[in-house]
Amino acid sequence: MSALSLRGITKRFGATETVRGVDLDIADGEFVVFLGPSGCGKSTLLRMIAGLEAVSDGVILLAGRDVTASPPGDRDVAMVFQSYALYPHMTVAENLAFGLRMRGAPRADIQRKVDRAVAMLRLEPYLARKPGELSGGQCQRVAIGRALVREPKLFLLDEPLSNLDAELRTAMRVELAALHQELGKTMVYVTHDQVEAMTLAHRIVVMRDGRIEQAGSPLALYERPANRFVAGFLGSPAMNFLAADVAPSTAGRLGLAIAGGRASAIRDITWQDTQPACESAAAWTLGVRPEHWQRHDRAEDAALSATAAVVERLGATTHVHADFNGQRLCVALPADEDVRVGDALWLSPLPGKAHVFDASGKAVA
Amino acid sequence: MKTRTSPLRIFASPWADAAWRYAALLLMMAVTVGPFLWLLSTSLKGPGENLFAMPPVWLPAEPTLDNFVRVVETQPFFRYLANSALVAAISVVLNLLLASLAAYPLARMAFPGRQAVFVLLLASMMVPFQLLMIPVYELAITLGLANSYLGLVLPHACTAFGVFFMRQAFQNIPRAVEEAAIMEGIGRLAIWWHVLLPLTKPSLAALAVFSFIACWGDFLWPLILIDEPAYFTLPLGVNRLAASFSLDWRLVAAGTVFSMIPILIFFGFTQRFFIEGAVKGAVKG
Amino acid sequence: MRPHSPILPYLFLLPAAATLGLVVIYPALKAFGLSLTDFNMIREARWVGFDNYARLWSDPFFWNALKNSALYVAVVVPVLVVAPLFLAVLVNRALPGITFIRAVLYLPVVTSLVVSALLWKWLYEERGLLNHFLLATGITDQPVAFLTDPANALFSVMAVTIWSGLGYYMVIYLAGLQSIPRSLYEAADVDGVSAWKQTLHITLPLLKPSAAVVTVMSSIAAMKVFEEVYVMTQGGPLDASKTLVFHLYQSAFEDFEMGYASAVGVVLFFLTLALSLVNLRWLRAR
After folding, report:
1. B189 touches chain A (CB under 8 A)
2. Which end of chain A has fewer CB atoms within 10 angstroms, the N or the C?
C-alpha cells in the first residue's frame, strides 16, 4: 500500500486550472521531489495534500485512507514552510511544543518528543530564544523540528531552503538528506531548484502547467528525459537543441544529422509507416547536453564546426558558448582544454548521447 | 526603507533650521497648553482672589485645594469618575473582543456574503451617530436601559472602524504562520487567541486607546440617556457644574481639572499608541 | 482559500454583527422610517409621508442651522487641512524633545470636547484672558463679546473645533511624511534639486492621500459639531451659532419632535455622505 496516492487531482480557480488531473503513488519512506518552474502547480498540489487548499476534483489517499475532505489537522502530516512560519511571539521551546500542547497531549509525552527533536537538530542552545533572534538557517531547523515533534506519517516541505543563502542551502541540504536517512519517513518536497531535486530525491516529479511531465529517479530523468521540457529543465547548463537533417541510414531506420553540420547521421531511429509526415527533417530535434560533446582536432571528424564566443572557466570545467549557424551552443570541456574566443571548435556528440525529439517534443530516442 | 525624519528643510544650516522650528513649536505649545495652565491656576485660587483682575494674576497668591474640596462635596465627582472608568473599561473590552473576532474571517476566510458584510460595515461607518441616536434612544428606553451602565456602553460596544482596524492588523501577519498552526491541527478559535491576538498586541493597544478616548469624552449620548446623577459620567458632571452654579469659575475650573487628571495620566502612559495608532488607523482606514 | 467549516466565519462575525445590527443598521433604517412619521415618544407614531421634509423646506430655523453648518465647514475645513500640515513639517525632525512636543500638541485631541469648550469659555469671558491680551496689545479698545455677540459667536466656537483637531490631523500628515522614502530625497539631492523644489515636487504630491483623509475627516467632524455649541452658546445668541446637529438635538430632546428631528438627521446623513464623496473624487482627480 502506498503512503500517499493521488487520483486525478485537479484544482480550479474560477475558469483556470492550475493542477490538471495528477495521478501519483508514493511509497512508504520515499523522498519525492516536485520540481518545476514557478506557476507549474507544484506548490498548489502540495497544499492540497496538506489540506490547506480544497481539492476541486480527485481523491487523496494517505496510507489507504481517503483524506480528501479531512481538515489538515486530521491528516497526520506535517509541513515545513519556505518562510519558516514560526510563531514569532513564542520561544523555540514553545514553538516546538505548541501544537501538542494545544492538542492536549500529556506533558511527559510532549517533553519526550521535543527532547528528541532538539537532540536530532541540535537546537539545545536556542531553546529560550525567539525566532527574531535566530538566523535563517536556525529558524528553518526549528521549523523542521516543529514538524518532527508531530511524528507524522508524511512530511511536506514547501521550498524549505529557498530563503537561505547559497552556502547555508548546501549545508541544510546535506542535513536534510541525513535526517531522512535517519527517520525513514515519507517526504514530499517542493522546489524549483534542480540541484536540490537531483541530490535529495529518490524520485523526481517534473511538473509543468499543472501536469506531471515525467516522474522517475534523478538519473533516469537526466539520462532518459521523456520530452524536450524535462530535457531542457534538468541539467545545468541546459541541453542544446539543434535542428535535424535526414541522413542516409540502414533500411527501416531513419538517420538524423545536425542541420548545417556534416551530412552523416549521428543518430538513427526506428522508422514507422505511421509517421509519414515526420520524414521531413524539420519535424525532428536533436538534443545534446553540454557535457556530452567531444572535441576533435580535425574538422573532418566532427559533426559540426562552431566558433567560441564566450569562455567561462569555472575551475573544474570550462563552459564554452560557441556560435553555430546563428545559434548559441554550450559546451562543457575539461578545465585544461585550450580554448580562446574566436577559436573554431570541431565538435560531435558522444556516441549514443544525443537525444531525439519529435515535432510534439516527445523523446523518440 | 522608511525614514524617521524626512529631510524637509527650510534653512540650509541645521542650526538655523532647529532654531526656527523650536521657536515656532514653542508658540504652538503655548497655544495648546496655555488654556490648560490658566485653568489650573484658576482652580487653585482662593475666594479672596479676583479672577478677573486686570492685568491677570498668573499664579495664585495662596494656592489652595479648597475649590476641589467644595466640588467633591457638592457633587459626587468620585462617583462620576468611577462611572466613566467603568463604562470606558467595558466598552473597550467589548470593542476589542467583538472587532477582533469579526476581523478574523474578514481577513482570512472565504465565505458567501463576505462582500455584503464589507458593504454593511462601510455603510455603518458612514452613518453619523446623530442620525442613529433617536432610534437607539428609543431602543434603550424599550430595553429598560435608561440610566444604566449597559445603556451607556451600547453605542461603543462595537465599532466598524475597530473591525477594519483589526482586519488590517491580521492581514499583516504572514499567512504561513496561521497555516502552520492549522497544519498542527489547532482550531480556529485557538489560533485566534494564541497566535493572532498575541501577534497584534500593538494594534489592540492602539484600538483600546482610541476607543477609550472616544468613550471617555462622549457627551451627547450620556446627555440624552442619563438624567440620574448616580450614573453621570465626568463630562456630564463637568457640564452640570458649569450649568448649575451660576458659573462660579473657581468650581468649574476645579471640576474640569479633576476630570482631566485621569486622562492626563492615561495619555502619559499610552501616548506612543496615539501617534502610532493614529498613523495606522487613519492612513489605512 | 482553505477549507474550513462553512459556518465558522459566521460564528466569528456573529457577536459584532448582532451588536452593529442593533445599534447601527437597525437604527439607521428606523431613522429613515421615523422621518416619515410624527413620532414624539409619547403617542403612537403616525405616518405623515414627506410632511417633515416639506416642513424643513419652509422652516427658517432649519435653513439658519444649515447655513451655520455650511459656514462651519467652509471655515474649519480649510484651516484644518492646511495648518496641521505645517505643524507636521515642524515636528518631522528628530530634534531633542520632539516626542514630548508632539505629545503636547496632541493633548487637546485627548481632552474631552466638553472640557475644551469650558477652557475656551473661560478664555472668552468678557474680562477673560483673551480680552486682556487684545486690550493690552491695543488690537481692540473694547472687550470683544466672543460668545454673546451674534456676529462673533459662531466663529468663536469654530476656534475650539480647530484647536481640538490640530494635533489629530498633524499626526495623519506626520504619518504621510514619514512614509515617503528617504531615498527619493537623496536621489533629488544627487540631482541637485533645491530643498524648496523637493518640497514642491516630492513631498506635497506624495502627501495627497493624507490630505484626502484629513479633508474627509475634518468635513465630517465640522458637520457633526455639537459639544462646543452646547457648552458654550446653546446655539445662541439669537440662534447665531445653532448648527444642524444642535438643531436636531433640540428638536428631538427638547421639543420631542422625533419625526421632524429624524428628517434633519437624514439630511445630515446625505450631506456628510455627499461631502465625503465630493472630497474624495475631487482629491483623487487631481
Report:
1. no
2. N
Shortest distance between the Cα of B148 and any Cα of chain C, in A, equals: 16
- C58 by Cβ neighbours in 10 Å (0-12 / 13-18 / 19+) ranks as exposed
CATH number for the domain harbouring residue C184:
1.10.3720.10
Give domain status of residue C3, yes or no: no
How many CA atoms does the CB half-sphere of A237 hold within 13 Å? 21
User: Does the domain formed by B75-280 have CATH 1.10.3720.10?
Assistant: yes
Domain extent listing, chain B: 7-64, 75-280
Which residue type is seen at B35? P
> In chain A, what residues touch B195 (CB-CB under 8 Å)?
87
| Residue C216 in domain | yes
ipTM computed for the complex: 0.89
- Pick from C1, C2, C8 the residue to mutate for testing the A interface (most A CBs within 10 Å): C2
Q: Do B194 and A73 touch (CB under 8 A)?
A: no
CB pairs under 8 A between A and B: 66
Taking the model in full, what pTM does it have?
0.86
pLDDT in single tens digits along all 286 residues of chain C: 455 788 999 999 999 999 999 999 999 999 999 999 888 878 888 888 888 899 989 999 999 999 999 999 999 999 999 999 999 988 888 788 888 888 899 999 989 999 999 999 999 988 888 888 888 888 888 888 888 889 899 999 999 999 999 999 999 898 888 888 888 888 888 888 877 788 888 888 888 888 888 998 899 999 999 999 999 998 878 889 999 999 999 999 998 999 999 999 999 999 999 988 888 787 666 5
Mark yes or no for CB contact B183/A78 under 8 Å. yes
What is the full DSSP assignment across chain B? ---SS----SSSSHHHHHHHHHHHHHHHHHHHHHHHHHHHHHHT--TTS-TT-SS---S-SS--SHHHHHHHHHS-HHHHHHHHHHHHHHHHHHHHHHHHHHHHHHHH---TTHHHHHHHHHHHHHS-HHHHHHHHHHHHHHTT-TTSHHHHHGGGS--HHHHHHHHHHHHTS-HHHHHHHHHTT--HHHHIIIIIHHHTHHHHHHHHHHHHHHHHH--HHHHHH--SGGG--HHHHHHHHHHHSS--HHHHHHHHHHHHHHHHHHHHHHHHHHHHHHHHHHHH-
Which chain A residues are within 8 Å of C2, Cβ to Cβ? 51-54
- HSE-CB at C159 with a 13 A cutoff on CA atoms is 17
- Domain count of the fold of chain C: 1
In a domain, residue C9? The reply is no
Residue C73: inside a domain: yes
DSSP C41: S
A365: its cell numbers: 530516442
Domain of C61 in residue numbering reads as: 55-285
